[in-house]
User: Fold these one by one.
Assistant:
Number 1:
Amino acid sequence: MSEFEIVNQELTILLVDDEPDNFEVISGILYNSGYRLGYASSGVSALERLKKSQPDVILLDVMMPELDGIEVCCRIKANPNWKHIPIVMVTALNAKEDLARCLEAGADDFLSKPVSAVELRARIGSMLRIKQQYDALKASLQLRLDMANMIVHDLRNPLTSILLSCEMLDRANLPDQYQTRINRIKIAEQQLRSLTESLLLMAKLESGKMILNLEEIELSQLVNTCISDMQAIAGQKMIQMIPDLPELERPICADKLVMRRVLDNLLLNAIKFSPSKSQVTVQINYLDDLITQIRVIDMGVGIADDLKQRVFEKYEIGTPMEDIHQVGLGLAFCQMAIEAHGGRISVEDNQPQGSVILIKISSLPPGAKHPYF
């Protein structure tokens, strides 16, 4: 029996089974169900078929020669382009150990042989609902990404105009009282630009469309640049920015733009929640030959123990403070960005008061994995 399709409507089911008679049974049960039914006679041909088109549900036989269903399931779930496809394992095996192997491979459900018509329809209906929910979520994320791109694109031009206008006023030698207001406009423009760029990167990270531009970067140099650019904002509260950096630089492999956004967010947060005339310190040190640690230390009100994990969730804020606008997106973005680099981010208490945002990131090249992570 050659591989073929029975075409009815839009929803597609792929049966992977080395026994053609099983396809006849399944197609007979589903004949009037309104599905497009495809058939692959081996695990290898199923994987090749997925490269061309993706079904909504896969019915996968466990016992097949050459490449069995367990291995096929593992390969499908390991592929980021395929892992969302629900897989129902069709098996004559009933031992708990065998079913556990299927679950470990990533299977979503089971069907026992001989296949029951009622059970088959129910299982497929359940898996299709899961797939449709996934598709709706994916479409929603894409809409958010498109909106974020549009907003950032539309904001860049007016922000650039504001900055250019401020520079022109700078050259006009206006009285000091006007110069102070111009500086405030510059600071507001800088904060707004940082926010819009972070929102765009966050949308890309969430949608899985963020491709990191990995290169060797010198963190000390990046920290010094960030601190220099934040001096005007810190100066409003007379906060001293202190770089505590190693004498010998050790490059890390990271996306420079993303890491810059992370540092900007952490410094802006530290300045926002620090009292006037205090200090914000950025410290870099090396835990071993491969792990680089970044600590952003403030002297603010700190974060309660019960919020130390939740503070990295979107729209979650730490200790509410009067006259401070808190959205709860900055640390969420930082977590997504650092985890995309294979690192970790956490919060600790500073002594005698304040918070420490702690980042640990590997200096290994892309694709390599440090035992710590």
Number 2:
Amino acid sequence: MATTSPYTDDPAAEFARRTDPHRRELLAYCYRMLGSLHEAEDLVQDTLLRAWRAFDRYDARRASVRTWLYRIATNVCLTALDTRTRRPLPSGLGAPDEDPLTPLEYAPEVPWLQPVPDAWLADPGQVVAARGTLRLAWVAAVQYLTARQRAVLILRDVLDCSAAETAALLDTTPAAVNSALQRARARLADTGVTETRVTEEAADRLVVDRYAAAFEKADIGALTALLAHDAILEMPPVRTWFTGRDRYAGFMTWVFAANGTDWRVLPTAANGQPAMAAYVRRAADDPAGHRLHTLQVFDVADGRITRNTVFQAPADLTAFHLPETLPPFP
């Protein structure tokens, strides 16, 4: 079949011109499917490599470049998921711990859900602006679905593809798509995530800023006052997790006792949620100042923090390009 791709003297430049506008939304799509930023990056690269190899056969009369790329990306993701297990958060692996002083149970062998920096996905004119479907809780819930159910749910409910469009991308029928979508929505509801909640970003940030100020002062009372009654604290790669304001506060009391009370915080954002990087200075004479300790990603509702997901694995922090140290307060 003759191609309608308007090749110029520089086909690589033409390919980049046509595909570059879709990179970020493809990354968001692959991340929603896999729950791993690093794997999503690899799959986007694989998608673009396959697209480049087939570019001379691309026919604009049959599909837009965006649809063509999503078809390739969907196949790449489905193939990858054949050999992957779901990426959970600690709250998805068992009951919470009752004692905030219980020894922490590290599980580095678990393929934990990873955070993604907002800066990698922010593109107001495109579907990546659907912040609700990038939230950690939503992506974790999607991990319970089969690979094809994930694809159907994301294509239909996030990207607003029609049943016919989704069927074409998955080489199936609209009836099969509708059936898979019904099962996916029901399974998602079973996890407790029934809808995507897009919050008031500025209001949420203000709550987290107040939390950060209390955190820097190691002020347990002020921290506790900002927590919802049933607030969740989880810390991959640690299996141990807590729910309830008192247990959360009890664990934070231990954190400050074990690490000291000299902290600094940098605001950031992840998964469409307010976040902060926490730095600790354990020794007053440490010439490096405050050292990077954790990335904390918050859910906020009705002016209270409902969940804090704390990441500490180096692989989870690298993408945020956070400084390793901060100087002490002047």
Number 3:
Amino acid sequence: MSPSPAPSPSPLLDWRVRFGALALIWGFSFLFIKVGTEGFAPFQVTFGRLLFGTAVLAVAIVVKRDRLPRGARVWGHLAVAAFLLNALPFSLFAYAELTIPSTLAGICNATTPLWGMLLSLVALSEDRPTRVRAAGLGIGFIGVLTVLGAWQGFSGLDVTGTALALLASFSYAVGWIYVRRTLSGTGASNLSLAGSQVGLATLQLAVVTPLFTSVPDSIELMPLLSVIALGALGTGYAMLLQYGVVAEVGPTTAAMVTYFIPVIATAAGVALLDERLTWNTPVGALVVLAGAALTQTRAKRSRVAAQSSAPAPTPPVVGMRSAGAERVGTTERRP
């Protein structure tokens, strides 16, 4: 009798470690943005983030000998996706964190699946809400009002900065719906689509940044390191991490990283930036996450069908991926 082959090591530990690293990187992205804006203009932070993220993805594409997408139409859709999923929301978050704490920005990011479900009611005829998902939408927005302290007239809250952060999350939701409608079945790999998308966003910021900013008189070390980490880790390496997690355990499990991001962002902001935390912020964040989780539920049959027919989602964008991306997005694999 020939000896039986040795059992292969279990991959569970490997994907869990990568999952935890992904949550940490995206959670710390809001801290990196905050520190980056202390030495650079918001557009410069975004451009640096995209530039270093593109560099990491370009290296991955070369190493894997992957091919870039083909066709002018595909590149046109990628340019729009780059604006909605990278250039615009990254810039909005950078501007928002000039006046709001990184903890609040991280919590606002968690509203993306709420916006995604709300938009899908209009844009995706096949994605109709159940009572549970509709309840989740209502619960989620109650959580947003709790975070913002609506009962006390939003006192002490910077309305403009908060609105910019919520608009950034809304842009993610719009972008994922657009991607689902235009970039499914292109034949290109998720890695090439993600790398091309981030590269196009870099070009967009390369045009805009010089028009609205000037070269800093001096470059401080910590803001520079934060921008490098934000791009290389939060926009480049994190997208590769999620690509592997999605391929190994599926998009449903991978999307759960969304629910850890605001927790880590809040802990990092309070511990490392001494940001003030009132009771309504963590309580409201938990309500938002509960509502967002409910909006992702669907009938068992439709969930199985969706997972068997839909390609794995592409990374939001850059540094942060939204749970809504699995439901309203499609292109291989963000984030």
